[in-house]
């Protein structure tokens, strides 16, 4: 089995384990990425077989909305349901306190809005995402408004990061579902997450950043030795 196939199998295991936490009648946040999609597909299967009933989903990205509609999952909004019972989402890097870097799929803003409205934020990963210190493996995605994005890039660089504007394969800047840009900001291992998160949050022109601190309630990790469920 290739590494990619093996990793996909682990992602699927973690995602399907998370789906066992869903009960009929729940409002469920539908996360983004190659791991969360396994959960969405499983939810659709359980709805089709009648094992789950009366689920409504809150999608964390436009492409997830389209996929959920295609799979027949009824959808809602945070206007209709301001409280989400349980969200299943992926992450790019996870530390031992269940702090996260997210935004590899450029959906960090909607993902964070849904996470902060969720009673349970269940993160599903394969074990390669575990890290002793955030920033060791992944740059922090920072969503910025297009106007003046270069000024934000220089300011973030002045904090000590290597900053790159995220681009599409054709070389054009990637735009988020909100029409903003993403700056990938490599700080290396981050000693003080709270200070950095606060600095980024206070800067006008920065819409949000991919540090998810204290938002995950559960982590489901699939690895060579099986599945672990860690609760905060
Ligand atoms: C999207 C995200 C994803 O959840 C994160 O990038 C993990 O994706 P994958 O499961 O494909 O590795 O934050 O913005």
UniProtKB/TrEMBL annotation:
The active site is at residue 111. The keyword Membrane applies. It is an enzyme of class 5 (isomerase). Signal peptide: none annotated. The keyword Lyase does not apply. Catalyzes the reversible conversion of ribose-5-phosphate to ribulose 5-phosphate. HAMAP family: Rib_5P_isom_A (MF_00170). This is Ribose-5-phosphate isomerase A.
